[in-house]
Amino acid sequence: MSVAQAHLSNRPAGLPPFKLMGQISAYRTTQCIRALVDLGIPALLEAGPRSLSDLAQATGTKPELLERVLTHLVHEEVIAVDDQGRYVPSPVTCYLTPDHPQSLRNWVSCELDPLLWRSWESLTEQLRTGNTAFDLTHGSAFFEWHAQDSAAQSRFDAQMNGASRGIGAVVVKELTFAPDTSILDVGGGNGSFLAQILDKNPMTRGTLFELPRSVEDYDPLFAEMRRQGRANVKTGSFFESVPSRADVYLFSRVFHDFDDTAAATILQNTRKALSGHERLYLIDMMAGGQDAGSRASSQDIFMLAQLGGRERTAAEFSALLADNGFETLSVKSTASPVSILEFRPA
């Protein structure tokens, strides 16, 4: 018997590591939630109590199999049963419906889709080679893939739109701009965040700067702003250049997509476009904050595996910006998971 074996054999018997066991098997519940959302069951339950046979008929599933998944989700308190044995919503079921203002349905559909889910299979290889897990799995980088896959782009836009509306409702209250201010939203997706900014700041105008899309599918409010002449779209890659002649440059949850080398390229291209009076606003989750904890580290690992990016502390952001010609003016936390950092050309 080795020294290590002897050491282990002398340990007193105790309780199994139940928390660890739950962490290992957590994916089972995750996939049951995905199936629940794919079948549209949360919306059915919100409309009224449903028997097993009702749900099976409405979703085209086999009752004896569906029952087993629903039983697990009852135990996990994702859904509930009433005293007649019918399935009913739990307090969280409504967040899995499409019409709830803080719906997580699009998040489930995007992050648990096989496109992203399979990327995690390459995490170990990423740790060994440094190549991003998504790229290793699919042979293409995240945004390059989405630019050619309209279904994947739609799922991603829907998730980002939901997040932008939830976070934007808090963040826009903290961003006030004078009339005639021109705002450039760099990497702003389908324009949902920029539309909220323009809506809250009358007499301002905005430009969305994004990669070319296979399908022009913009946020409805942003599309209305375009019709009114308050917003326009410019396409291109911020790794090549960034448009000039804006007063305010917004980067909402952009830099966590990239490592420091890539982020520096974006910042250097931005600095070249500026004359000196402009302001940069970075809206991002701050790692290392008092309340960040596992939420921030979980998001950091997601960015690592899917995009090769990372979450940063406020100090790391300030250092990154300083290295690329910007001076920190303020760091403001919000009631959402993100903070607002303001910079100016140094």
End-to-end C-alpha gap: 65 Å
Largest sheet, in brief, is: 7 strands, mixed
Q: Low-confidence stretches at least 5 residues in length (pLDDT < 50)?
A: none
Q: What oligomeric arrangement do these chains adopt?
A: single chain
> Could you say how many structural domains there are in total?
2
**Please, what is the average pLDDT?**
92
- Overall structural class, as computed from helix and strand content, comes to alpha/beta
In CATH, the homologous superfamily of the largest domain goes by the name: Vaccinia Virus protein VP39
Q: Strand order, biggest sheet?
A: 5-4-3-6-7-9-8
Topology-level CATH name of the largest domain: Rossmann fold
SSE string = HHHHHHEEHHHHHHEHEHEEHEHHEE
CATH architecture of the largest domain: 3-Layer(aba) Sandwich
Q: Give the number of helices.
A: 17
Please compute the radius of gyration using only Cα atoms. Answer: 23 Å
The total of beta strands comes to 9
Globular, elongated, flat, extended or rod-shaped: what is the shape? globular
CATH class category name of the largest domain = Alpha Beta
Active site: 256
Organism: Roseibium suaedae
Domain O-methyltransferase C-terminal: 120-327
Protein name: Hydroxyneurosporene-O-methyltransferase
